[in-house]
Hints:
Elements: H1 2-24, H2 26-30, H3 34-52, H4 59-81, H5 83-90, E1 94-98, E2 101-102, H6 104-109, H7 114-123, E3 132-137, E4 143-147, H8 152-161, E5 171-175, H9 178-181, E6 193-197, E7 200-201, H10 203-208, H11 213-222, E8 231-236, E9 241-246
Antiparallel strand pairs: 1-2, 1-3, 3-4, 5-9, 6-7, 6-8, 8-9
Amino acid sequence: MEFWGLLIRTVIIYFVVFLIMRFMGKREIGKLSVFDLVISVMIAEIAVIVLEDMERSMWEGILPMAFLLLIQLGIAFMTMKSRRIRLLFDGKPSVIIDNGKLNSDVMRKQRYNLDDLMLQLRENKINTVSDVEFAILETSGKLSVIQKEKSGASNEMDSESGGSEAFGTEQKLKPYGKSNIIPPKYRFEILPIPLIMDGKVQDENLEKLEKTRFWLKNVLQEEGVKDFKDVFFCTIDHKGRLFVDLQNKKPRF
Length: 253
């Protein structure tokens, strides 16, 4: 008898949770902000408590879930009317890359590391940071990437030279020749290949490229960089093009 009671409870709670999630709207299903995640977790926890304790009345679970639904709908209505409230609950997007330049201060503030960035750039089929006009970290955690527009003339120049010079004083993209840099048997599971991350040389990747710190230091000196610690991010792509982004020189508190 207890088994059938648990089965009936499970079916009822399932439909209650299903209806609550439907009433919350497609916005909550389509993306999970911090507030959406909290509401969803709380509804799930309440449902589990009612199923685990057969002595509890189902109304002790249904009423709190319905109340959470009212809270969610009320806040959703207020966020539609007021952008200030919307920013309070959902936050605002953060610009991670601006015209091929990494915004290290924003990355530190959002606790967004270089490995996360490289992963999401690869998911967007981006080979190098300098190809990005803007990369925006959305409130849902998704990275929206807008690539730079390439004119026909610039594309022809890139194909002839093997690379292009990036804009700005703190980043440069320079062709070094694929045959001289990349070993023929190197497998490109990671693109671009990180050489320096947060001022630390990635010796493992240098070994895979059959290069040394001495070679990397000479290459950086050609770009006007004297110390590895001055570099925030340095990569090389499959065409042998080097990307260098310097550390932010502002004092850290």
